[in-house]
């Protein structure tokens, strides 16, 4: 079922604990603030797909921000998926981004805290899935580093990787352009978040 050790790790007990840690009102507020900044730089988004949706905090925010949009979430951890599936107005799918079955592309395809946990060897395939799933916009909200680095994550090796994910996408797909980017700071007085940087990209020609 799992292609690598990272997928097995996040689909199991550690992923369950991650889900519990991130299921708070504070995390929901941060997700709402982050998604509001991103969608404010878009236009005519009527469909969205998120890879690595966890319990759906970002999609819950989008349900308010884009009340008429079709929302879809893909999540590998079963406990998180079960909770995601209870979110009204969201089509939930249990599985890996690596096994995603292509559907008609959404206006916005995005990840938030997913790419940092992907085996680096699999990133080109994930980038391709993200690109193909988008009809217009791609957003990534991840830990940024100008060069690829591995970081110990709660005492575990090979579980967290930082790099310039948006830069990778811009290089791999020349028809993408950078629309905007921003940083979510853990000491923000209104929406404290997890020191992640978000990037919004747009296809130069709508697919």
Description:
The structure is a single chain. With 207 residues, the chain is α/β, with parallel strands linked by helices. 31% of the residues lie in helices and 26% in strands. It has 7 helices and 9 strands, in the order H-H-H-E-H-E-H-E-E-H-E-E-E-H-E-E. Strands 3-2-1-4-5-9-8 form a 7-stranded mixed β-sheet, sandwiched between helices. It has a two-stranded antiparallel sheet with strand order 6-7. Helix 3 packs across helix 4.
Structure in a nutshell:
This protein has helices spanning 5-11, 13-21, 25-39, 57-65, 78-84, 123-132, 165-172, and strands at 47-51, 70-75, 90-94, 106-112, 134-142, 149-150, 161-162, 176-184, 196-203.
The largest sheet is:
7 strands, mixed
* CA-CA gap between termini: 32 Å
Query: Which regions contain 5 or more consecutive residues with pLDDT less than 50?
Result: none
Shape field: globular
Count up the helices: 7
Beta-strand proportion:
25-35%
Radius of gyration: 16 Å
Strand order of the largest sheet: 3-2-1-4-5-9-8
| Average pLDDT for all residues | 90
Furnish the topology, listing elements before pairings.
Layout: H1 5-11, H2 13-21, H3 25-39, E1 47-51, H4 57-65, E2 70-75, H5 78-84, E3 90-94, E4 106-112, H6 123-132, E5 134-142, E6 149-150, E7 161-162, H7 165-172, E8 176-184, E9 196-203
Parallel strand pairs: 1-2, 1-4, 2-3, 4-5
Antiparallel strand pairs: 5-9, 6-7, 8-9
Helix pairs in contact: 3-4
